[in-house]
């Protein structure tokens, strides 16, 4: 275990000989750099699936059969995927299918059939009650009001939901109507998450979002105070998003709309995606650098803190008790996730799997009474410890003792990194507890990736 007050001697900063240079040294902060803006050259994310192993084709049928027949043992959530959008936003890496008005009912019929078919499995029906359900996409709010309600009522009828289960409907403000929000809430939705990205009309148009600022604000205010938590997401580092534009974005979210919570994300540019191509071709200006992103993050945290908002995670802030952020916290902590709908992904402590994203193949399988799983991988032995690290940095507090019990030797091996991070001002490190500072929150995914890299050596 690391000492209560780690010494900053050369001995304490020595990398354990058994750990490869690239497993640790790549995550050492840059000496004498501003911890907020320059601790690392870039932000990286942990990729626990890198060490997962595909289940051999000849073993998949038996493995899936055991999976379906095994009751859940851990905290559990569910995810439903609605893979349609009216248009593709430049920044999005998840677009799959264009939306057509005649899609709503037949798709909903099939999704309900899938839920009913699989609800008989011990994996779905037996075990801890589900604490959260997330209807994501794509754009679930593209569905008709009646179909949104039918899906939610089916979930409540077929799945073992906790009495206080968080049921989130994700959507676009351009799709939201009073009829849809009323139908959703009456059916059981108690949380609505809307993609905003920016309130600035020009920035939005560059992203492929057509609603101007005033209409966007009116649409959000229309659905607040209806009995469900209303949350939005804002992205910093967007093309054309100056410091002044970002300041107006966060001020608008805090002061002009009755939100219950919001996410603040750094822009993620998908290689080869439409945004990357637009920048490469010169259609869009180069994006703000990592220093600008760091300052934008710090500005938002300070603005919301001054107005009494609480930090629920590294990127999520809450204003009222209605916002609990259960699904996101549970996923980061490695909860079992039941998956429904084409393109969705599920997991349990042993496996991860995905439902076929091809609409025709998914439809054929459901109509034949089959489960259209097209990918099954086995987690590495350190998956539980990896999830604990991810959740710890996400929430700003890491229990090294708990991780060491999962993977003995972790605390000793990782002390080299934690001492360096504390010295750089990214964390506070005392005994078995690591707490992130504001700069550490900004670099949380990088810190998580660094700590996770230790696990494969134990």
Properties at a glance:
458 residues; alpha/beta; nine-stranded mixed beta sheet; four-stranded antiparallel beta sheet; 19 helices; 18 strands; globular
Description:
By secondary structure, this protein is of the alpha/beta class. 41% of the residues lie in helices and 19% in strands. It contains 19 helices and 18 strands. It has a nine-stranded mixed beta sheet, sandwiched between helices. It has a four-stranded antiparallel beta sheet with strand order 1-15-14-13, covered by helices on one side. It has a three-stranded antiparallel beta sheet with strand order 16-18-17. Helix 6 (145-158) links the parallel strand 5 (130-137) and strand 6. Helix 6 (145-158) packs parallel to helix 7. The protein is globular and about 60 Å long.
């Amino acid at each position: 275990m690391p000492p209560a007050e780690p010494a900053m001697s050369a001995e304490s900063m020595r990398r354990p000989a058994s750990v490869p240079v690239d497993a640790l040294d790549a995550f050492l902060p840059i000496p004498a750099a501003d911890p907020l803006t320059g601790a690392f050259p870039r932000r990286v994310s942990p990729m626990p699936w890198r060490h997962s192993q595909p289940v051999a084709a000849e073993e998949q049928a038996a493995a899936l059969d055991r999976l379906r027949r095994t009751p859940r043992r851990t905290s559990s959530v569910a995810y439903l995927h609605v893979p349609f959008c009216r248009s593709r936003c430049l920044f999005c890496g998840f677009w799959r299918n264009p939306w057509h008005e005649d899609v709503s009912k037949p798709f909903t019929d099939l999704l309900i059939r899938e839920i009913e078919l699989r609800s008989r499995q011990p994996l779905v029906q037996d075990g801890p009650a589900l604490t959260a359900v997330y209807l994501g996409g794509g754009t679930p709010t593209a569905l008709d009001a009646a179909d949104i309600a039918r899906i939610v009522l089916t979930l409540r009828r077929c799945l073992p939901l906790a009495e206080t289960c968080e049921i989130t409907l994700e959507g676009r403000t351009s799709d939201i109507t009073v009829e849809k929000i009323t139908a959703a809430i009456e059916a059981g939705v108690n949380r609505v998450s809307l993609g905003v990205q920016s309130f600035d009309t020009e920035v939005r148009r560059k992203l492929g979002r057509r609603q101007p600022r005033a209409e966007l604000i009116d649409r959000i205010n229309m659905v607040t105070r209806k009995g469900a938590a209303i949350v939005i997401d804002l992205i910093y580092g967007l093309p054309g998003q100056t410091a002044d534009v970002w300041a107006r974005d966060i001020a608008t979210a805090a002061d002009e709309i009755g939100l219950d919570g919001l996410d603040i994300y750094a822009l993620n540019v998908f290689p080869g995606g439409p945004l990357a191509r637009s920048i490469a071709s010169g259609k869009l200006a180069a994006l703000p650098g990592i220093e600008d992103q760091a300052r934008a993050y710090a500005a938002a945290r300070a603005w919301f803190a001054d107005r009494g908002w609480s930090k629920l995670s590294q990127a999520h802030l809450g204003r009222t008790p209605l916002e609990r952020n259960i699904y996101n916290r549970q996923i980061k902590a490695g909860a079992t996730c039941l998956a429904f709908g084409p393109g969705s992904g599920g997991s349990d402590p042993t496996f991860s799997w995905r439902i076929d994203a091809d609409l025709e193949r998914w439809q054929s399988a459901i109509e034949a009474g089959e489960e259209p799983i097209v990918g099954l991988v086995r987690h590495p032995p350190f998956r539980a410890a990896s999830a604990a690290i991810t959740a710890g940095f996400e929430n700003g507090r890491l229990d090294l003792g708990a991780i060491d019990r999962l993977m003995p030797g972790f605390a000793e091996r990782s002390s080299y990194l934690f001492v360096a991070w504390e010295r750089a001002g990214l964390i506070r490190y005392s005994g078995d507890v690591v707490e992130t500072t504001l700069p550490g929150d900004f670099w949380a995914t990088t810190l998580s990736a660094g700590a996770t890299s230790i696990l494969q050596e134990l």
